[in-house]
Amino acid sequence: MLTTIFLLIALALGVLISLQPAINTAVADRLGNPLMAATFSIAISLVLLVMAWISIGKFDGQWSKISSLPWWVLIGGASGAFFVAGGVMIAPRVGVATFFVFIVAGQLIGAAVADHFGAFGMIERSISAPRLIGILLVVAGAALVQSSGETNP
Q1: pTM here?
Q2: Would you say 42 and 80 are in contact if contact means Cβ atoms under 8 Å apart?
Q3: Which structural domain, as residue segments, surrounds residue 110?
Q4: Based on the domain organization, do 88 and 153 belong to the same domain?
């Protein structure tokens, strides 16, 4: 039951995140700068997360642990910034659906490689034939979505 709840939350988050490039594009149009819109979006995220962090009472002494983090944690933060900025700049040109189907295809490829090698301390999960077929189907779907939605130059 708990897994079902988590999967439904993940589905809802997927729906919510699918709105982000369109919303940020509208912000970029009003501000006249896609990077300013991305910065505004990330700033809102930061404020909300700090508020959540403070509200659960975990604001004590954790700053000292930051220096012990490995270098590759920077990839996590950078990927969020690249995603938001990329969405503002790419989605208006290719369409939100095409943007996201390519994002999902890239996520599956990256996740399968990370699972295969047990990257960043994850459990190793081999790229099996069914996984590979699933990834190839998503890549084929990405190509179909892109080719069916070409209306912009």
Answers
A1: 0.77
A2: yes
A3: 96-153
A4: no
Structure tokens at 124: 């190793």
3-state secondary structure of 7: helix
Phi, psi of 61 (to 5 degrees): 60, 10
3-class DSSP assignment, residue 18: helix
Q: Please answer whether residues 38 and 88 qualify as being in contact, where contact means their C-beta atoms are separated by less than 8 angstroms.
A: yes
- How many structural domains does the chain have? 2
Residue 35's pLDDT is what?
Answer: 94
Tell me the per-residue pLDDT of 29-77, one tens digit each, with 9 for 90 and over. Answer: 999 999 999 999 999 999 999 898 888 876 666 677 888 889 888 998 8
Per the listing, tokens 């912000």 go with 27
Cα separation, 101 vs 139, in Å, equals: 8
| Residue 128, in any domain of the structure | yes
Side chain identity at 40, as an amino acid letter? F
- Is residue 60 a part of any domain in this protein? no
The DSSP-derived string for 86-116 is HHHHHHHHH-HHHHHHHHHHHHHHHHHHHHH
Residues 29 and 87 in one domain: yes
Residue type at 10?
A: A
> Token pair of 107, please?
């996520």
Distance, in Å, from the CA atom of 112 to the CA atom of 40, rounded to the nearest integer, reads: 32
36 part of a folded domain:
yes
